[in-house]
Amino acid sequence: MASSKGTNHQVSQIPSSQGSTNASNVPTSSKIRKSLGKFKGLETFKKIRAYNNAKLPVQIDMEFRRPFGENADGLVGEIARLVTLCASFDVSYWRDVPEDRKDKIYEKLLDKFELKVGDEVCNDIYIRKIIYEIAGRRYRDVRCTLYHHYQSYATDEERLQNPPQDINANEWAWLAMSERNKVNRSKQETVKDKLEELASQSCDSPVASIPEEVLSSVVGQRFGHIRGRGCGPRPPSKSVATAATITGLQSQVKDKEERMIQMEEIISKQREDLDKIQEKLDRQHEEMSSQLNEMVNKKFMDMIWDLDIGLDVYSKNLSYGIKFVRITYSDNIHYK
DNA sequence: TCGCGGTAAGTGGACTGAGC
DNA sequence: GCTCAGTCCACTTACCGCGA
Q1: Which residues, by range, are in coiled-coil regions (predicted)?
Q2: Disulfide engineering: A20 pairs with which of A25, A62, A124, A245, CB 3.0-4.6 Å?
Q3: CA-closest candidate to residue A114, choices A93, A134, A131, A132
Q4: In the beta sheet, which residues pair with residue A40?
Q5: What is the distance of C-alpha A319 from the center of its chain?
Q6: Is the dihedral of CA A276, A281, A285, A287 positive or negative?
């Protein structure tokens, strides 16, 4: 980082509304809004006056392609001021700024500075190129500042109602539209990246395997037109679309039929298996019932057998008792 | 087609002066 | 002393033309 960083701020700016380098237009302290950047050119102007309105000499280093020495900061500051004042901002890049605007900046610069390489005053295409490089960097900075200004408002309406002070409304409107388009473009790039990512995964993923499905999964579906136009699939011509539609539908019908046949075969086989299982279950049930009956019968017979023995004993006891009662009874009668 | 060099754009950070 | 806006620069990245 250069040790002289920031020293260029001593080169102040004449307010853009005045925009002239004439001495009568130098702002007085009472009229000036005290704000950084608003005095650009003032110090340079004072220096020029101190030189009896002569041009300020500036050394140019051809190797490092930059000014150096006493008035280098003044030169760079003046370039920045002229870029803000003269360069059009209704284009995206410095290279697109009209040549006449660039020439104007260069000529105004030569009104105040004497560009020297060594001891010789130089005004050739190489010097001009170096000046344009510096101007191009300042152009980017200005655009960067304008972009920050753009970001400070949420809606286009607010942005258009609050243009920066040093830029006219038309250029600001163009910039606002440009930035909006850039955002939209970046969204398209995002969709493109997602499409490529999903397309690369489509072999493994059963969800989205054809481009239309991939696109729909990324940008969503919308009737009437294809979303993501520019990066995504483009609508085919009418005849091609009709033929493609018929072919596609026929293919889909054929595919459905094949899948239905396969499903029916699977269902039929499953029914056969089910019948076999049912038959087996019936046989097992029959066998178990038979075994159960046999066991029940056997148990029943055992119980009957036990019951016969008991009845026999009971009947023997019963007849014995009756005999006893008769004897007793006859005895009692007898005794009576 | 690939690598190289030049050029320009984008970005982040350092620095400064003015205002509070 | 702190914050903010303006300015400048270094670095990275992207693009383009050219030659092998």
Answers
A1: 246-298
A2: A25
A3: A131
A4: A13
A5: 109
A6: positive
Domain boundaries along the sequence of chain A = 27-187, 190-235
Which helix (H) or strand (E) segment holds residue A116: the answer is: strand A113-117
Tell me the nt nearest to A78, Cα to C1'.
C7
What would the pLDDT profile of A298-314 be if each residue is shown by its tens digit?
Answer: 877 777 666 655 555 45
The reply to whether A192 Cβ lies less than 7 angstroms from strand C is no
In Å, what is the separation between the CA of A322 and the C1' of C11? 132
DSSP assigned state of A45: H
The angle at the Cα of A314, spanning A313 to A315, to the nearest 5 degrees, equals 90
User: Alpha carbon of A336 to those of A134, A257, A322, A326, A333: distances in Å?
Assistant: 161, 112, 20, 15, 5
| pTM given for the model | 0.48
What is d(CA A102, CA A245) in angstroms, rounded to the nearest whole number?
56
User: Residue at minimal CA–C1' distance from B17?
Assistant: A36
At A226-245, the pLDDT tens digits run 333 333 333 333 334 444 44
- Nearest nucleotide (CA of A2 to C1'): C9
